[in-house]
Amino acid sequence: MAPIIEITNLVKTYPGVRAVDGVNLTIEQGICFGLLGPNGAGKTTLIEIVEGIQKPDSGGILYKNHPVGDRFRKEAGIQFQVTSLQEFLTVRETLRLFRDLYPRTLDIDEVIHLCNLGEFLDRDTRKLSGGQRQRLLMALALINDPELLFLDEPTTGLDPQARRNFWDLISMIRSKGKTIILTTHYMDEAYALCDVIAIMDKGRIIAQGTPEQLLKDHFNDVVLQFPDESVKGKLEGLDLCVSAQPGRCEICTNDVDKTIRLLLDHGVSLSRMTVSSWSLEDLFIALTGKDLRT
Amino acid sequence: MKKFFAILHARNMEFIRDTSSLGWNILFPLLLVLGFAVVFTGEPKALFKAGVLGDASVLKGTDREFFNARYVQFITVNDERMAIDKVEHFQLDMLVDIRQGRRYWINENAPNGYVLERVMKGMGGSRYERTIVQGREIRYVDWVVPGILAMNMMFSCLFGVGYVIVRYRKNGFLKRLKATPLHPFEFLLAQMVSRLILIQAITVAVYAGCNYFIHFQMRGSYGNLFLISLVGAVCLISLGLLVSARLASEELAGGLLNLLTWPMMLLSGVWFSLEGVNPAVQKIAQFLPLTHLVDGARAIMTEGAGLADIAPHLLILGIMSAVFLSLGSLIFKWE
Q1: Which one of A221, B140, B185, B289 is separated from B52 by 20 to 30 angstroms, measured CA to CA?
Q2: Contact B14/A87, CB-based, under 8 Å?
Q3: Contact flag A52-B179 (C-beta cutoff 8 Å)
Q4: Is the ipTM, as predicted for this complex, more than 0.90?
Q5: For residues B3 and A101, is the Cβ–Cβ distance under 8 A?
Q6: Are B161 and B321 in contact (CB under 8 A)?
Q7: How far apart are CA B290 and CA B267, in angstroms?
């Protein structure tokens, strides 16, 4: 399918920081694209440049093969990480305000139904809970029936139920053929929702692909875990990649059948063995390191 | 237009529902005017004031006797027309001309003038030729009310637009609007029109409310008064927009707005006439929009000035508005 967004050699610097450092990205239409990265990686800066909120120092962005302009503003829906609304307005009035800013919109009742706003329609927007507020912000991003939806950490601070509720909503929007660009810190969220993931660090895209492909590319082994008592004294002299963890022992292997045969031959019981594959979080840590970011 | 009306309506709702702010906008001028009415209504001052055309110090004998009277302040004046006008409005109790003949002007309705005339006749002034003028007293409250209303407009326009836009920018609401097809001009125009409607409505209501109790002197036309307040409000809102065009700090915006409002409050003739103050201060005052709003409104109310008389003030306010708005939209930033 044709790309909806094409980013070429994008650069943005702040005093002393190269926030976006020569990024090239192509985002296909109709997918959910996840942008992951530690704090300060440049995700929000990159997204805000694409949204037209910030100006890049150099580089180009095309929306449907055209420079970002009026058409983009009419067809894009945006949910910022942090935003305030006009005070003293109810949820319904806020929806009407934003509806009137666009030439083509969804019916307000449809948005209310989609985002489940019915219970607090006449409440002042300052008196909404965290989950209700996120749903309203999502509704505002959807009000112009966008072709392209930007969601910047939409579930941060939500409880597990509210997060799952949001995931359902995002999946449903994606099923309508809309393109979604999502930034998140939750790897399970990215894995559950995104067709393609890009991992960003220090202003650069350091990995990109489907979640499965990325894991396959970076990890070709699995980890077998045993309690200490199951393997005590039985692994000496064996040609295995063993690492000792508190109370347990981990064996990395890319040939599970062969390893298990070897272990059985040496009297290791498999009854308490667990097998774990690598997660997106492991990949994230492997690529971006364990150092604390601010 | 749909976008403009959406923002206009939202801002109007925000203002009207923010009851504390709305209450303050109405209550503040009301309290000031009523306070002044109470303070300055009461026993007239004991001192008599007489304007003198000519030099009384060269007079001799009985001619001089009246000019030595105690409790009468003799003020040398040069402009006969202006001095007569002051007698008409009770600002002088009497005007005496000793340049060639001996004449005096008196307002028949002024109690002080009546007493002072008797004093003069008993102190060597019986030969003076008498001229009667008519007119109603301009109380201080009549004089000060255009200033107070204009000052309230100034605070409301500068803080209600300037401060609010800075707040919108700081909390990210402007950034959210930037992500929509809304044009900055539509946004700014809606802010201006919203404040214009609300401040005009409030000013009319406060004027009517105070007038019910105090009965201001109003010698000109209400149409002209409305016109100058409208043009003045546009100018002050434009100044507010200029201040808020780029700032993202409410503290800095507050400081700058205070820096603008306080000199205007003191130097624009709100509380006292600028006649007789340092010429440099008078020059500075001419660069302040509030001066032109107050002078124009006061001229209409106390002197019955017509459209032609206030045209220079309207022109200056118009030019200032154009400059502030152009600069403001030139340097405006959503973030």
Answers
A1: B140
A2: yes
A3: yes
A4: no
A5: yes
A6: no
A7: 9
Q: Could you give phi then psi for residue A52, rounded to 5 degrees?
A: 85, 10
B2 touches chain A (CB under 8 A): yes
Question: CB B13 to CB A89 under 8 A?
Answer: yes
Distance (Å, rounded) from C-alpha B57 to C-alpha B61? Answer: 11
Q: What does the pLDDT read at residue A107?
A: 92
For the record, the structure tokens of A158 come out as 């939500």
Domain with CATH 3.40.190 in chain B: 48-133
Domains and CATH numbers, chain A: 3-216 (3.40.50.300), 220-277 (3.30.70)
CA of B334: which chain A residue's CA is closest? A53
Which residue in this structure is represented by tokens 């005052």?
Answer: B285
- CB-CB neighbors (< 8 A) of B179 in chain A: 51-53, 73, 76, 78, 80
Q: Which amino acid is at B107?
A: N
Nearest CA in chain B to A51: B179
Determine the distance in angstroms separating the CA of A93 from the nearest CA of chain B, rounded to an integer.
8
| DSSP per position, A61-93 | EEETTEESSHHHHHHEEEE-SS----TT-BHHH
Q: Give per-residue pLDDT as tens, A257-280.
A: 888 898 888 888 888 888 877 777
Q: What is the 3-state secondary structure (H, E, C) of chain B?
A: CHHHHHHHHHHHHHHHHCHHHHHHHHHHHHHHHHHHHHHHCCCCCCCEEEEEECCHHHCCCHHHHHHHCCCEEEEEECCHHHHHHHHHCCCCCEEEECCCCCEEEEECCCHHHHHHHHHHHHCCCCCCEEEEECCCCCCHHHHHHHHHHHHHHHHHHHHHHHHHHHHHHHCCHHHHHHCCCCCHHHHHHHHHHHHHHHHHHHHHHHHHHHHHHHCCCCCCCHHHHHHHHHHHHHHHHHHHHHHHCCCCCHHHHHHHHHHHHHHHHHHCCCCCCCCCCCHHHHHHHCCCHHHHHHHHHHHHHHHCCCHHHHHHHHHHHHHHHHHHHHHHHHHCCCC
Q: How far apart are the C-alpha atoms of B287 and B290, rounded to whole Å?
A: 9
B238 alpha carbon, distance to own chain's centre: 19
Yes or no: say if A203 and A23 are a contact pair by the CB < 8 Å rule: yes
pLDDT digits (tens, 9 = 90+) for A201-257: 889 998 899 988 888 777 777 888 889 888 888 888 888 888 888 888 888 888 888
CATH pick for B48-133 out of 3.10.20, 3.40.190, 3.40.50, 3.30.70: 3.40.190
pLDDT at B314 (0 to 100): 96
8 A C-beta contact, residue A225 and residue A248: yes
Question: Minimal Cα–Cα distance from B249 to chain A, Å?
Answer: 16
Residue with tokens 């100058």: B228
Q: Which residues of A touch B180 (CB under 8 A)?
A: 73, 98, 101-102
Cα–Cα distance, A238 to B150 (Å, whole number): 93
Chain A residues within an 8 Å CB radius of B248: none
Q: Where are the alpha helices (DSSP H) in A153-275?
A: 160-175, 187-193, 211-218, 228-231, 256-265
- In the stretch 177-236 of chain B, residues with CB closer than 8 A to chain A read 177-182
Q: Indicate the pairing of strand A222-227 with strand A204-209.
A: unpaired
Helix axes B184-214, B19-40, angle to 10 degrees: 40
Closest by Cβ to B17, choosing from A83, A88, A99: A88
* Interatomic CA distance for residues B171 and A85, integer angstroms: 8
